[in-house]
Amino acid sequence: MAEAESLTGSSPDPDPDPDPNPNPCPICLAPVTQESYLDQCFHKFCYNCIIRWTNTVARKQSRAPSSLNCPLCKTENSSIIYGYDGTSFQQHYVGKNMGNSEFFSEAHRYRLKCYYTEPGNIADKLHVSRYWKSRKYLQQNRFLPDWLRREIQAVMQEEDVDIIMHHILGVIESLRSDWLKTSRPSTEMVQEEFRMVLSEAARPFLTGRTEKFVNELELFLASGLNIDAFDKAYAKHLGWKIPKISENNDDDDEPIEHTCALPYLYILDEESDGS
Ligand SMILES: [Zn+2]
Ligand SMILES: [Zn+2]
């Protein structure tokens, strides 16, 4: 035992992948920008994140909400405290300036929920390695623009994302034409290049969710499915019953056991409890 340990080096590191960002915003998973606190539970979020979240929740309620349940602990809060400079702060009361959340559909919510769920072996089910090995990445995917738009909308909780969508599409297209011109020495190299270039392109917009986004993008492309079929395959894999997404899909395929490694935002589940 001691012998084996001494071989691994002089400074044993119990955590091989230390989190470079120990206290991220629970919503965007990136370092908190414009620190904001809920007034009762004092959970901390980015200002933009908690405002968007509030708008997303408001969309589901018939009357304008006058309070917000914390996405982390469910405590009822009535305002968001921000701009604290040591002596003063500002307060945003929930219920003011709501709107612009009509676009956020059930499908958007389901996609956002995927960002907080460990998807298990879905990459195998959707044949990701076959996609790269068989060089299917050289083909264009006509479902991609619509899928990308919805995905970015879901992740950013923002309706107008067309500029970002076209940016990402452009990056994918130029990668593809590059691959067509010059073939890479190995499949791994292509896949690695894809991940690196796409992460770089998406990070300014998606920050802490970039890695997951690139993963989801790869899954979607590799699946070769259209949006509906992709949603169904995904929901079925996770064992999620989502109206409009997993209609009459009562096959015997066992859903995987999925664990939540990420902060669990209860609000994503709210609707499935209710009706
Ligand atoms: Zn945030
Ligand atoms: Zn809280």
Automatic annotation (TrEMBL):
Record key words, sorted: Metal-binding, Zinc, Zinc-finger
Keyword Acetylation: no
Annotated Pfam families: zf-C3HC4
Protein name: RING-type domain-containing protein
Disordered: annotated segments: 1-22
Organism per entry: Sesamum alatum
SUPFAM superfamilies documented for this protein: RING/U-box
Any one GO molecular-function label of the UniProt entry: zinc ion binding
